[in-house]
Amino acid sequence: MTTLLIFILTGLLCSAISAYFVKGQVFPGTTISCLHECTTHIDLDAFQNLINPENQRFYESKLSGEQLKRWRRERDRIVMAYLKVIASNAARVLYVAQQLREDPIESTRVAAEKVTASALRLRMNSLVAMARIHLSLIFPLQSYDSVCCAVDYPSFVSSVMWLVMQQDPRQTTSVLSAL
């Protein structure tokens, strides 16, 4: 009975901690009109090239053991940096979208609900991908193919653009260039 209680309490604690990290922080003063100033642009082509399995196979065939280890460490460090920016962008957008869920205009509320769901999913998947990369540093033989496949940044950006167009169409270009 005591063991079961310990497992249940540990599970609840882990759930609370993961919910805290997924939800993100509070960014006072962040509105949809200043979203382009507080988010960081992601070069999606470069990110996708880093996680491309074909590129990994190419480097594995061309580099020696020590060079391959160095290349993997460097790639993992860069991918982690991308994932941190993605998670941060998602947290900031999540904060704005949650505030817009109370908007009097129904189309804005619907868009904010979709962006909230998308931002939560993206942030969670980014954090899981970062954990899996940390594991790949410990167990280097782990396949890298599926580490970042769940990070669907383009669909996140399109849902944010829909929300921006509902709220302030003049900001669409600036927010798109920032994400």
Q: What is the number of helical segments per DSSP (H or I, 4+ residues)?
A: 8
- Number of domains in the coordinates? 1
The assigned structural class equals mainly alpha
Runs in which pLDDT lies below 50 for 5 or more consecutive residues are: none
Rg, alpha carbons: 19 Å
Give descriptors for this structure.
179 residues; mainly alpha; 0% strand
Can you summarize this structure?
It contains eight helices and no strands.
Could you please describe the fold and organization of this structure?
- This protein has 179 residues and is mostly helical.
- The protein has one domain (2-178).
- Helices cover 75% and strands 0% of the residues.
- The protein contains 8 helices and no strands.
- Helix 5 runs antiparallel to helix 6 and helix 5 (65-100) runs parallel beside helix 7 (153-167).
- The longest helix has 36 residues, at 65-100.
- The termini are far apart.
- The mean pLDDT is 76.
Can you lay out the helices and strands and say which pair or pack?
Elements (H helix, E strand, L loop, with lengths): L1 H22 L11 H4 L5 H8 L1 H10 L2 H36 L5 H33 L14 H15 L4 H7 L1
Helix pairs in contact: 5-6, 5-7, 6-7
